[in-house]
TrEMBL record:
It comes from Candidula unifasciata. This is G-protein coupled receptors family 1 profile domain-containing protein. The keyword Transmembrane helix applies. Residues 55-297 form the G-protein coupled receptors family 1 profile domain. One of its GO terms (cellular component) is membrane. The chain crosses the membrane at residues 33-64, 115-137, 158-180, 216-233, 254-277. Keywords: Membrane, Transmembrane, Transmembrane helix. Its main location: membrane. It is found in: Membrane.
Length: 297
């Protein structure tokens, strides 16, 4: 049985030295970052997150009551479920940045738990990405090839696709969970030992592959959604008579709206992630981070 080094590297530098080591590489000042987090995470962002949790719970209840025999309802139920998971995990991530939460005498390291929660959030967002791509593709074919779409997108195939996406996205983040181990660690800020996590010595190699994979996957899905949405909008404009008479036109418009919101919300993050693939210093543990923000909270 192979021996693994699961201890975190010991850094003998003081907090002030760690701050000075990365301060010159940070893109924005701590003050700017603090107020950005204050507005985005603890204010408006958390309000939107809580609203998303409530609406997704209601959506799940509605879709279950409507039945899961239609491909659209099945897909939207899967989307509401993955969105609920992403909002719940994001809610904790927002709370973990809140100053009163950081000031609590917790028996664990908040940042270590947030590391696990963050990967769970990433998994759910990737699931939502590919479900949105599936829904958009289905509606696109419904407009461009209405006589064939029912034979291609059946309820059974839709259920299989959702199961496949959930399994694949879970598998994509499992390597990061594999590199972590629960352990009792020393917190230099509070000068006590707490429950946290440690990493295998080959963590960087494994996480580098996982990071690349988890950013390539949504980028491909985003491109698919953009292409299908453009085709949908273009086809709807050309077939004005069909748009007025077809019973599925409202569903198509709803999918176009969902796709448009998805593109607007995911495009900035996709651009950032693509840049992070080329510049490792921009990653969450890179030298351009603002580690001292933790001491300001």
């Amino acid at each position: 049985m192979a021996d693994f080094n699961v201890t975190k590297p010991i850094d003998t530098r003081t907090n002030t030295e760690l701050v000075n080591a990365t301060k010159s590489r940070a893109i924005v000042s701590n003050e700017v970052l603090y107020y950005f987090l204050l507005f985005n995470l603890w204010g408006v962002g958390q309000g939107v997150c809580l609203f998303g949790i409530m609406t997704n719970i209601l959506n799940i209840i509605v879709f279950v009551k409507q039945g899961v025999k239609d491909t659209v309802n099945i897909s939207l139920l899967g989307l509401a479920t993955s969105d609920l998971g992403s909002q719940i995990t994001l809610c904790y991530a927002n709370i973990s940045f809140c100053p009163p939460f950081m000031a609590l005498d917790l028996p664990f390291v908040p940042n270590d738990l947030m590391y696990i929660i963050s990967w769970c959030h990433i998994m759910f967002t990737r699931i939502s990405t590919w479900i949105t791509a599936y829904i958009t593709l289905e509606r696109c074919l419904c407009v461009t090839a209405p006589l064939r779409v029912k034979n291609v997108f059946t309820p059974k195939r839709t259920v299989f696709y959702l199961q496949f996406v959930y399994i694949i996205m879970l598998a994509s983040v499992l390597p990061c969970f594999y590199t972590t181990r629960p352990a009792i660690v020393f917190d230099p800020v509070r000068n006590i030992t707490l429950l946290g996590i440690t990493f295998l010595e080959n963590r960087e190699t494994i996480e580098s592959i996982t990071f690349t994979t988890n950013n390539a996957i949504p980028t491909i899905a985003l491109c698919l959604v953009v292409i299908c949405t453009i085709i949908l909008v273009s086809t709807l404009r050309q077939k004005s008579k069909w748009r007025r008479q077809a019973t599925t036109s409202n569903v198509v418009k709803m999918v176009v709206l969902i796709s448009a919101i998805f593109i607007i919300c995911y495009f900035p993050g996709t651009v950032v992630f693509i840049y992070m693939l080329t510049d490792q210093d921009m990653r969450i543990d890179g030298v351009r981070r603002n580690p001292e923000i933790c001491y300001l909270l």
